[in-house]
């Protein structure tokens, strides 16, 4: 009879062979072998598994040139653009956690990432995109209802991209213009509410027939499977319009500067944390102003 531990190891190994990050991360998370947000781990791991499958490389038995190969993979997003240092470090952090889980399952004994050098982290005071650039991006994205709504949730409500990708229509209450994010009900700005309503109607909601909301509740709001997919769509729009590329994280960081609103609007459950974030945002603005 197969021991449960051995059966789990077999499931994990098969998910690796299939380059299936969803099954791999979900299986380890359910077994309490991996902490953190599964959706974020899946997003971080997908480029690595995809490349390993393409190059016929085993992550359990990595070759001698594993580190140079990994540096190359981490440095590039799925759309071909260069990954930012913090993105590379987030991906390697997930891989480190994965290898720790593999060791607990006795799938390997050593650590393939010993002496692997992380990228230098981005400075917290890197310049934010200008409000003018963000307004132009929003205008350029208006023809794409999904991207338009996503940008507004990032910019007006500082919604983390990892949460945005998991949203279903059950989180949106059209009659109240609110969005459930974790344990907090966020009142939406009129512009964001209008964008979500437009997208919701495309998903099948009709405000004249309230039962249509229940029919959409289990549907995902956005078509992006990973953060790389969202970045790719942003890059396509900015490239076509001759605009500077602004990744989701930078759009979100501009929320406190441009749309401070209220703690609930930006997802803060404690006023103390909100005030601290406001002070930090103001410090960034002050640091980037021309004397």
Q: Keywords, please?
A:
single chain, 291 residues, mainly alpha, hpI Integrase, Chain A, 2 domains, three-stranded antiparallel β-sheet, 14 helices, 3 strands, globular, disordered C terminus, DNA binding, Integrase, DNA_brk_join_enz
Count all strands and give the number.
3
Proportion of helical residues: 55-70%
CATH architecture of the largest domain: Orthogonal Bundle
Largest sheet at a glance?
Answer: 3 strands, antiparallel
CATH superfamily of the largest domain, by name, is Intergrase catalytic core
Protein name: Integrase
GO molecular function, one term: DNA binding
InterPro entries: DNA_brk_join_enz
Task: Draw up the topology in text.
Layout: H1 4-17, H2 21-30, H3 38-54, H4 66-74, H5 85-104, H6 131-140, H7 145-157, H8 161-166, E1 172-173, E2 178-181, E3 184-187, H9 190-202, H10 211-216, H11 227-241, H12 248-253, H13 255-258, H14 271-288
Antiparallel strand pairs: 1-2, 2-3
How would you characterize this protein structure?
With 291 residues, the chain is mainly α. It has 2 domains: 4-105; 131-288, Orthogonal Bundle (hpI Integrase, Chain A), CATH 1.10.443.10. 55% of the residues lie in helices and 3% in strands. It has helices at residues 4-17, 21-30, 38-54, 66-74, 85-104, 131-140, 145-157, 161-166, 190-202, 211-216, 227-241, 248-253, 255-258, 271-288, and strands spanning 172-173, 178-181, 184-187. The chain has a 3-stranded antiparallel sheet with strand order 1-2-3, with no helix packed on it. Helix 1 (4-17) runs antiparallel to helix 2 (21-30) and helix 7 packs antiparallel against helix 9 (190-202). The radius of gyration is 21 Å and the shape is globular. The termini are far apart. Residues 284-291 have low confidence and may be disordered. This is Integrase. GO terms for molecular function: DNA binding.
């Amino acid at each position: 009879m197969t021991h449960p531990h051995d059966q789990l190891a077999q499931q994990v190994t098969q998910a690796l062979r299939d380059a299936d990050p969803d099954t791999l991360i979900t299986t380890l998370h359910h077994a309490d072998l991996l902490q953190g947000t599964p959706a974020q781990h899946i997003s971080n791991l997908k480029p690595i598994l995809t490349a390993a499958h393409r190059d016929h490389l085993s992550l359990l038995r990595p070759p001698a040139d594993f580190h140079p190969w990994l540096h190359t993979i981490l440095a590039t997003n799925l759309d071909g653009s260069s990954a930012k240092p913090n993105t590379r470090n987030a991906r390697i952090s997930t891989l480190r956690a994965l290898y720790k889980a593999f060791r607990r399952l006795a799938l390997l004994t050593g650590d393939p990432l010993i002496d692997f050098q992380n990228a230098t982290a981005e400075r917290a005071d890197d310049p934010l995109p200008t409000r003018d650039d963000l307004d132009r991006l929003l205008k350029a994205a208006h023809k794409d209802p999904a991207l338009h709504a996503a940008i507004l949730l990032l910019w007006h409500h500082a919604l983390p991209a990892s949460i945005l990708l998991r949203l279903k229509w059950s989180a949106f209450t059209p009659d109240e213009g609110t969005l459930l994010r974790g344990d907090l009900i966020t009142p939406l700005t009129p512009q964001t509410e209008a964008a979500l309503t437009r997208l919701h109607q495309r998903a099948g909601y009709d405000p004249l027939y309230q039962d249509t909301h229940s029919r959409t509740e289990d549907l995902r709001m956005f078509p992006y499977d990973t953060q790389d997919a969202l970045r790719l769509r942003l890059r396509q729009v900015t490239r076509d319009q001759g605009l500077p590329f602004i990744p989701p994280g930078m759009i979100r960081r501009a929320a406190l500067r441009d749309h401070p609103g209220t703690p609930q609007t930006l997802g803060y459950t404690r006023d103390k944390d909100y005030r601290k974030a406001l002070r930090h945002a103001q410090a960034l603005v002050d640091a980037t102003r021309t004397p």
